[in-house]
Specification:
The chain is α+β, with helices and mostly antiparallel strands and 144 residues long. It is built from one helix and seven strands, in the order αβββββββ. Strands 1-2-7-6 form a four-stranded antiparallel beta sheet, with no helix packed on it. The chain has a three-stranded antiparallel beta sheet with strand order 3-4-5, with no helix packed on it. Strand 1 and strand 2 form a beta hairpin. The longest helix is centred in the first third of the chain and has 20 residues.
Length: 144
């Protein structure tokens, strides 16, 4: 009796290779157009008075960015990274993503949107989001 393994079948092998390539593409690109998880990478921390946010945005210009605070605790960063113009050249690899992006974060507490400060230096956006008075702890006097 002649036994044939399915993996030895050329058609099956081709389908297997195609599935592997499709999986590789989806693994690389994930669910985000930039293919590297959420873009831009964001760090968020707090001190006594404010939240501090840093976002890495290499290659962007100030005019490519917009930030919003809505509902006292929703921070949105929008922008667009433009693709470089490559003329008379053959591209061999593209790992950096280009295009429009939006990141919206729910902040851990309400912030004073009228006092938000933002700076953009060396491709890093730094935002200071002061705590809203209602979010700051208040010492309560205890009466005897």
């Amino acid at each position: 009796m002649f036994f044939t393994r399915w993996t030895m079948n050329p058609v099956w092998r081709s389908l297997n290779e195609m599935q592997h390539e499709v999986n590789r593409v989806f693994d690389r690109w994930g669910h985000h157009p930039f293919g590297m998880g959420e873009f831009p990478a964001i760090n968020l921390w707090e001190d006594e008075d404010a939240l501090h946010l840093e976002a890495e945005l290499p290659g962007l210009q100030l005019e490519d960015l917009e930030i919003f605070v809505t509902g006292h605790n929703q921070f949105t960063l929008k922008g667009e990274r433009k693709a470089p113009a490559v003329e008379k050249a053959m591209q061999h690899r593209q790992e950096r993503g280009f295009g429009k992006f939006t990141r919206t974060l729910t902040l851990p507490y309400a912030v004073d949107e009228n006092a938000v400060e933002a700076r953009f230096e060396n491709g890093v956006l730094k935002v200071r989001l002061p705590k809203h008075e209602a979010a700051k702890p208040r010492k309560i006097e205890i009466k005897a």
